[in-house]
Amino acid sequence: MKMISPWRLNILRAAYLLLALGAGYLNWSQILDPAREWDMMEGIVVIMLGAMSLLALLGLRQPLRMLPLMLWEITWKLIWLARVALPAVLADQVSDGVAANMVACGLVIILIAATPWDHVWRTYLRGPTEAWR
């Protein structure tokens, strides 16, 4: 197995820290607020992103093992940008909420740059398949 250089792992750790602090600050302040009430979908989103911020802390210790979390974060943001933000921009109907989320999701470029794609390719796409039984 090809080794990932320490500087590359540290860049990946910085991306996990960005996830943990960014999502953690935004979501845990709401989660811990006893006066806060949500409808079902808003509550699901906030709690899922809060859980993701906690899991991102594991990426500081095990950056390669936590790559599926990074891939999930990159994937949902790219899908949201393509399916929600782009049509809103093309229709010239960008609400304040969409605009704010476009900025937050636009930071996905940092995560994309920090991800060791050669390792992702070797491990998840070209690597041996695990036994089904």
Low-confidence stretches: none
- Number of strand elements: 0
What is the straight-line distance between the termini? Answer: 25 Å
Tally of domains: 1
Assess the beta-strand content as a share of residues. Answer: under 5%
**Outline:** globular
Please characterize this protein's 3D structure.
By secondary structure, the protein is mainly α. The chain has one domain (6-125). It is 74% helix and 0% strand. The longest helix has 26 residues, at 6-31. The protein is globular.
List the helices and strands and how they pair.
Blueprint: H1 6-31, H2 40-61, H3 67-90, H4 96-106, H5 108-114, H6 117-125
In short:
The protein is built from 6 helices and no strands.
Question: Can you tag this structure with a few keywords?
Answer:
about 130 residues, mainly alpha, about 75% helix
